[in-house]
Amino acid sequence: MFSDVGKKKMKSLQLGLWGITLACAVGCTDYASSWKFDNPTVRRIQEKETVRHITDDNQKTRIKEYIGKRVRIVFSEGGTELPDEIHTAGRAAALTQDGYFITAYHVVQDRAFYIEQTNMIRRPPSRGFKTSEISRYFSSSRHRGRLVWSNPDADLAILKFPIEGHPYFNLLEANPTKEQIVFSADDEGYGSSPADKRGEVRRENLVGNGVFFAAGSVLDGPDKFLPATASTFSTSLVARRGMSGAPLVTADFKLCGVLSRMEGFGRFQSLRTVAATIDPSLIEDLVADDRDQQTRQRSNKMEDSEVSIPLEWRPMIRDIVKAFTKGDYRLSVPVPGVLPIDPGTSAQIQEYIEEYSEELIELPDETWETSVAQYQGSKRWEFLVDLWTAESGSSDMVLHGEVEEGANGPTLKVGLVYVP
Questions:
Q1: Which of 7, 82, 280, 314 could form a disulfide with 172 if both were Cys (CB 3.0 to 4.6 A apart)?
Q2: CB-based contact 58:52 (threshold 8 Å)
Q3: How far is CA 110 from CA 60, 150, 152, 174, in A?
Q4: What does the alpha-carbon distance between residue 193 and residue 340 come to, in Å, rounded to a whole number?
Q5: Rounded distance between C-alpha atoms, residue 101 and residue 91, angstroms
Q6: Which uninterrupted H or E stretch holds 210?
Q7: Which of the four pLDDT bands, split at 50, 70 and 90, describes residue 110?
Q8: Is 48 exposed, middle or buried (0-12, 13-18, 19+ CB in 10 A)?
Q9: Beta strands in 167-209 (DSSP E)
Q10: What is the pLDDT of residue 176?
């Protein structure tokens, strides 16, 4: 029999364990649905399981760095589990350099979602920090995504974001074997949480969206009751809130699945993490089909007509204009997906902007309302983007360019800057 203190400790441990359930939208228990935040107890349990499978710090660092570069935090709006001011979050693993990712379906189910590329400028203090100080520690950019494909039964989804040049998992493993060691990690992100009454955000209260490294072993193979192309398997790896959709990777750096949920099994309801996996050939087919479909749709709807600048191009065009505002007309820092600017073109652009005698500024969101693209056939486009100045806002100047659609995404060629 437990004493009252022992019962309280046992109940606290149960709450902590069940609180790391990753699929609250699917069969969540009462105390799982009421558990809102990451906590030190879960982290200790995760660390204990991890050290059972990896003790070499150098190997741990290599695996964490490899995975961390290929995973991004996905935020989904309109969640019901958390207060309105908090956006629920999960992870997604990069499948291609041009913005295709795989995640757990429940991360984005029936919600608008976006990827927030966050860079840590410096490590925040362990005591926490004020919301007004967040720019001291982090810089970020936000890109909305779309759902390409989903399999709710296996809790899998493929997403597309308008980003280029992203590191990705080029080795995939569809059939992890029993007792095989697997890893998951992310080296960015400290989560999101409302500030307290003093305006401080404390790291221990962040919604589970922080840096992590976890290891475990495969407990059983793919679920025979699901289609062979998309299935699930369980592992001993201990996950915590915010890790949904995070990549599961083998010791030889092969992506073998994404984290889906925690569930109990056996007489004493021990916990295990369920991962979702997919046939690599299906990923290739789905991505290729989506690229073709997007090209066909643009071709059918846009040939001989002007349309808005596609979302995928906008980050590249923003970076080009940003460089111009700094006097960098040759793009000394390459922009992924953009061809180098030849000396003659860069000289014309510099001369025209300087003669315009107003200060060029970075593109605001409003510029896309008046900027246009036109399909020229053979997967080639031309575009005109309105440029903005500090004095006039939207100016008479435009940036002309060409875009060619390719197997690895769009390639942009900068044209001239002029007044039509």
A1: 280
A2: no
A3: 36, 11, 11, 27
A4: 42
A5: 10
A6: strand 210-217
A7: confident
A8: exposed
A9: 181-190, 200-201
A10: 86
Under DSSP, the state recorded for 46 is: H
Closest CA to 108 of 64, 30, 160: 160
Percent of the chain with pLDDT strictly greater than 90? 47
Q: What's the token pair of residue 266? A: 């056996």
Of 410, 392, 135, 183, residue with least CA distance to 291: 410
Q: What is the mean pLDDT of residues 218-246?
A: 78
Q: Which residue has the tokens 């808005």?
A: 308
Nearest Cα to Cα of residue 146 among 132, 133, 157: 157
Determine the average pLDDT of the residues in 252-274.
Answer: 79
Mean pLDDT of 344-350: 92
Q: At a CB cut-off of 8 Å and minimum separation 6, what does 319 contact?
A: 335, 338
> What CA–CA distance (Å, rounded) separates 178 from 112?
37
Question: pLDDT per residue over 284-335, tens digit each?
Answer: 999 999 998 887 776 665 555 678 899 999 999 999 999 999 999 999 999 9
CB 256 within 8 A of CB 101: no
What pLDDT, on the 0 to 100 scale, is given for residue 10? 32
What tokens appear for 342 in the block? 């030849």
Architecture of domain 4-283: Beta Barrel (2.40)
Going by C-alpha positions, the residue among 358, 372, 369 that lies closest to residue 420 is 372
77 within 8 A of 111, measured Cβ to Cβ: yes
Better-predicted residue by pLDDT, 97 or 192: 97
Tokens of 388: 């903005």
In total, the chain counts a number of residues equal to 420
Q: Which amino acid does the sequence have at 258? A: V
List, in sequence order, every residue forming a beta bridge with 381; answer none if it has no partner. Answer: 375, 403
Tokens of 207: 């919604």
CA angle, residues 216, 219, 221, in degrees to nearest 5: 120
Question: Is the CB of residue 89 less than 8 Å from the CB of residue 209?
Answer: yes
What does the pLDDT average to over 53-61? 92
